[in-house]
Structures are given as C-alpha cells and as structure tokens.
TrEMBL record:
It comes from the Bacteria. The keyword Membrane applies. It comes from Methylopila capsulata. This is Succinate dehydrogenase hydrophobic anchor subunit. The chain crosses the membrane at residues 12-33, 89-107. Keywords: Membrane, Transmembrane, Transmembrane helix.
Length: 132
C-alpha cells in the first residue's frame, strides 16, 4: 500500500514577507509594551540616609576602603548603596504566563494534528514493523 508523499501547503513570497514582518512586529511589541506601560523596571527601591557613614551604610572596613579607592565618600556612595532592585515574583503573573504557554502548545498540537499524522505516516508507516 503506497501513500503519496506529504507535501506541505505552498506559501507565496508575499505571504512569507507578510509573515516575517508580522513576526518582527510581534517581537518588537512584546519587548517594548511592558516598558511603555511601565510594567518593567519599576521594582527599584531607594533608601535615604540622613547622616551617611560607612557604618550606617553597612559597609565593613574592607568595603569602605574599596569605595574610597574609587573616589567615593559616604555621602556620594549613599545614593548608590541605597538603590536596590526588588526581585519579588508575582506568582499570579507566573501562573497566568505558564497557563498561556500550555494552552498555546495544546492548541497548536490540536490544530496541526492532521499534518503531523500525515508526516508521521509517510515517514514511519511503511507497512513493515521493526524487528527487535
């Protein structure tokens, strides 16, 4: 029983260009949208020090010596030391992202099921069973 080889659907050059431009646009939007909406980089906290000294900045003598070698005083280093990034994770956002990825993967498998079956049948279903 001979099957005809699987032939994927043909796409025109214009279709390929539209697909490429669409993918590029989606990548740009995906990368810049969080920045434009103020959702990225907003986790910074700043601690203000009234009378900064190396002790109040929680710098040991070795650390203070390195700051001084770089030309910093406790007053000038306080702004740098006081700036912290908040690395907290939003578990709800993480769960939504994971759910979207899983739903997308399952949807793509379901939509592509016919094509996958044709390719698998062409490549591996030649009527012969492998010997063990």
């Amino acid at each position: 029983m001979s099957r005809r080889p699987y032939e994927p659907p043909a796409q025109s050059v214009v279709g390929q260009i539209v697909d490429a431009v669409l993918m590029l646009g989606l990548v740009v939007v995906t990368l810049y949208l969080p920045l434009l909406l103020g959702l990225a980089g907003s986790g910074a906290t700043t601690t203000a020090y009234d009378n900064p000294s190396w002790e109040t900045l929680k710098q040991n003598p070795t650390m203070a010596a390195q700051w001084e070698k770089l030309g910093f005083t406790p007053d000038s280093a306080a702004a740098i030391i006081g700036a912290r990034f908040d690395y907290s994770v939003s578990w709800m956002a993480f769960a939504v992202t994971a759910l979207v990825i899983v739903v997308y993967f399952v949807a793509m498998l379901r939509w592509s099921d016919k094509e996958y079956r044709e390719v698998i049948a062409e490549r591996f279903d030649d009527g012969e069973r492998p010997s063990s």
